[in-house]
Write a structure and sequence with these properties.
Length: 194
């Protein structure tokens, strides 16, 4: 018995009706997937399957939350997941994915959607994911503030247009005219000498 057997959808059994499947994607599911992006979560997945001519239309609806590390403080944060996706499946000789159509072997008679569900969840996570203002780990934010920013030297021109990252509050980044990132100082000298 496969660890993802419960996510098998037997397509050959579906003739004229639309079938609805529901899955609870909890911590046990994410542990079985064994992927580093998401390891904790609680997602309700609804999948409707309808046969149309020689293809099957699968409509996915995902709602819930996953816990992922905050990009700023590295503490876990809750990321809401609300996602809808469609997938067309048809039978063929061997498994393949062509554009938006998935071809499964006719001898299998169905499709396992466990990995598709996980991919849809991961695709729904924003590239930048941070806590809401005021919720980041205060200790980590103060360490970041200490290492990211520094005061500009007093002998620099006051009308210099360079800017750097600064913290407006303990856990919020903003642009500041009186501070600069030391990595950019040498580049500024190149611009001024040309």
């Amino acid at each position: 018995m496969s660890k993802f057997e419960q996510y098998n959808i037997v397509l050959k059994d579906i003739v004229d009706e639309t079938r609805l499947y529901e899955f609870d994607l909890d911590n046990a599911y994410f542990k079985k997937i064994d992927s580093p992006e998401v390891q904790i979560g609680n997602i309700k997945a609804k999948v409707s399957v309808q046969k149309k001519m020689n293809t099957y239309d699968l409509k996915f609806e995902l709602n819930g939350i996953v816990n992922i590390p905050c990009d700023r403080c590295l503490d876990n944060m809750e990321q809401p997941i609300q996602y809808k996706e469609k997938l067309q499946v048809k039978f063929g000789d061997k498994f393949s994915e062509e554009d938006e159509i998935v071809i499964v072997p006719e001898s299998d008679g169905g499709i396992n959607i466990a990995w598709f569900l996980y991919e849809f969840i991961v695709l729904n996570i924003p590239i930048k994911h941070v806590h809401a203002t005021g919720e980041c780990n205060k200790t980590m934010v103060s360490k970041l503030k200490k290492h990211i920013t520094r005061q500009k030297n007093d002998d620099d021109d006051d009308d210099d247009d360079s800017t750097a990252l600064d913290f407006e509050s303990e856990d919020d980044f903003s642009i500041s005219d009186n501070q600069t990132d030391p990595r950019w100082d040498s580049l500024q000298n190149i611009i001024e000498n040309n």
